[in-house]
Amino acid sequence: MLDESKRYYYHIRLLIVLCAILILITLPNQVQARTLKVGTYHCPPFIFNAEAKGQNGLSMMLWQRIAETMGVGYSVQNYELEDLLLSAEKEIIDVGVSCISITPDREEHVDFSHSFYETHLAIAVKKQSYWDSFISVITNSKLWKVIGAFFFVAMMVGSFYYCLEHKKNDKLYSMPTKMGRLAEAFILGILFISKGPFNYFEFKTLPARMMTVLLAMFSTVFIASITAILASSLTLEQLRFDVKGVNDLSKIKTGALKSTTSSLFLSDHSIAHEKYNTMDDLLIALDNDEISAVVSDDAVLRYMIKQGKTEGYFSDFTVLPYQLEKQNYGLILIEGSPYAEEINRALLHIRETTEWHEILSEYFIEK
């Protein structure tokens, strides 16, 4: 009986030892299964791959916090944009981290996390000199149309009063020659439209006096309309740039990063453009007048120009106040990623934290 009891406990101990060995053997595999392969694409300020800054940036900060929340390790490999998307499609990496816009075309090949940053495409140009601004004013077609309309109405009003008054009103038409009196009529029309109606008793004939009352209301509305048109089309900011919208990009040499939503946007609008490999190359081309405008993500443009100005570059660059196509950045995931739910849950939580909003302010708010 004792021998059987010893054998029983011996088997129990042997089973415990075997279980412990099995756990020790499988534990490294479990840890390895939770080490993710992360791909990045250089896109300041979301990803910096420069040696001086290492793997850093807004998107990397976000991913580091997501990884901490998930309790996973990760290794990082840098790619060009096309290679990054292809690596995710072929499941060479588990996650792509950068400033990648979520688009229907890309969704056909890879999955995305929830959006972690919203922006839009924007246009950057070099500021014109004040002489160029003056040239823009005097060559503005809308300005000349308004001036033409003004003088036409003034001529019609002056002609009307001349026909009624020139034989009876020596005060308004005092020049000895006919040409002089016609000039006075034209001046009267200009003054009537620009300054408002003359005194009712300046006119001698009843039709002229009656028309003065009617034109008093017309001239007020007319001048208000002209002022509104000029204010909307000839503001200081608009006068200082040749580009006033997407359609104007077809008239000038435009640049964008290749394989990006900016390049696709321009192609969709049938706008020929130069394609560059990096933002540095793109902005240097603008600075050297090789191109006249840049189309890229607003957040990236503003950050790069801001950083350039702190280093003494791009002092005359500006981002125009036009919001083109909206962009939503997400993390790239392989199709059917087993980590998608965990990543999205952690991402949504981090997005709402005060820390994340402070980080965004540090990069994008002008101080």
From TrEMBL:
Residue stretches spanning the membrane: 143-164, 185-201, 213-236
Q: Which GO terms describe its cellular component?
A: membrane
Q: What is its main location?
A: membrane
Which keywords has UniProt assigned to this entry?
A: Glycoprotein, Ion channel, Ion transport, Membrane, Receptor, Transmembrane, Transmembrane helix, Transport
Q: What membrane topology is annotated for this entry?
A: Multi-pass membrane protein
MF term (GO), any: ligand-gated monoatomic ion channel activity
* Keyword GTP-binding belongs to the record: no
> Where does it live in the cell?
Membrane
Q: Record's superkingdom?
A: Bacteria
Which SUPFAM superfamilies does the protein's record reference? Periplasmic binding protein-like II
All residue ranges annotated as the Solute-binding protein family 3/N-terminal domain in the record: 35-367
**PANTHER family the UniProt entry points to:** IONOTROPIC GLUTAMATE RECEPTOR
Q: What protein name does the entry list?
A: Extracellular solute-binding protein
Q: Which organism is it from?
A: Aliivibrio wodanis
